[in-house]
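PT: before anyone asks, these are the final sequences, not the draft ones from last week. 426 residues across everything. Please model them as a single complex and drop the result in this thread when it's through.
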Amino acid sequence: MRVLAVDDARGLALCAAPDGARSSVEVALVGPVAAGDALLVHAGTALTRLEPAGA
Amino acid sequence: MKFVDEFRDPGLGRVLAGQILAEVEPGRRYKVMEVCGGHTHSIYKYGVDDLLPANVELVHGPGCPVCVIPMGRVDDGIAIAHEPGVIFTCFGDMMRVPGSRGSLLEAKAAGADVRMVYSPLDALRIAKANPDRQVVFYAIGFETTAPSTALTLMRAKAEAVPNFSVMCNHVTIVPPLRALLESPDLRLDGFIGPGHVCTVVGARPLRFIPAQYERPVVIAGFEPLDILQAIHMILRQLAEGRCEVENQYTRVVPPDGNRRALEVMAQVFELRPHFEWRGLGFISQSGLKLSAAYADLDAELRFGVPGVRVADPKACQCGEVLKGVIKPWECKVFGTACTPERPIGTCMVSSEGACAAYYNFGRFAREREVV
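LR: through. Structure below.
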């Protein structure tokens, strides 16, 4: 999912799936995120950040 | 789409299929288990098995979280769902899993307030919106999903949400793998490792497979090229006489997993002495429950559950399918009495279940073969 906006105070990020569906995602496990980051999200929690260099 | 399209390239798939063919020893039979239900789904969806030489057989493993939930635990969930004032939440595919007296979906039809959620966080949101109701989240899944439940429980505690609780059915992947490797009725040559579980736990927990059982493991992603490349890497290890854990899914899986995820799991959960798996029976130290610090959020303690053990239906052979002993179509009720619309066994319910994956994508190819 792609990060659209970050709510640091609540540890959540608004993310969009490739089909456009938006949801709140827990980002506590992946460290600071910024709009535009690609995250692997499972059951509402980001488990890892997808680094373009590693793809 | 980035990270997806490039791993579905048919031309590269054919190149990998050629490399796999070049690696196999004629006359030798290879049995490779894909542990994770997500792999099973991709294999059938994209026809990966059609690209493999006839002597390379893919065996489906126990890594579908919905498939391994025993009937007694479904019955326990339904009992809580019928408690007055309860909103019972769970993932969508869990709703159709049959217990001994119907599924959660049937409980909903009978009047229970059962709601589908996409995440435990959604369940917590429902709890905050309904302060006069008790909201229970039925947690299932391997180490991929457990951190999500753990974070939600930590959030519920920090925000003091008194009407939220979790019925924990989380399981861990290593104990059933060890049980399979100890099983005398299954000879496996290698494992396609569960990519997303390893995102959390890293590669280290799988090292016992080469170290103690001398089988190669390749942690793999879920696109067709990922799976083909992983099979090639396993065959290469076998050809070179090597035996180790390799990581094909480096774009997602860090070698040490996600340390923070492991920390939150350690805070919130503790191992149960034993946990029942559908078709596999009781496996010691394979299930998680809420730790003492989170006992006040444990739905099993808050409501009390019947906890009755229910035997699997006689006609259903999910156990053999989960252990890879039989193929989905070899089950007596596959595609006749047991279909995704009216499942008898769990493997036909979840999209990650081997039977559902085969029913949806593979059966027509087999019908052509039979004709």
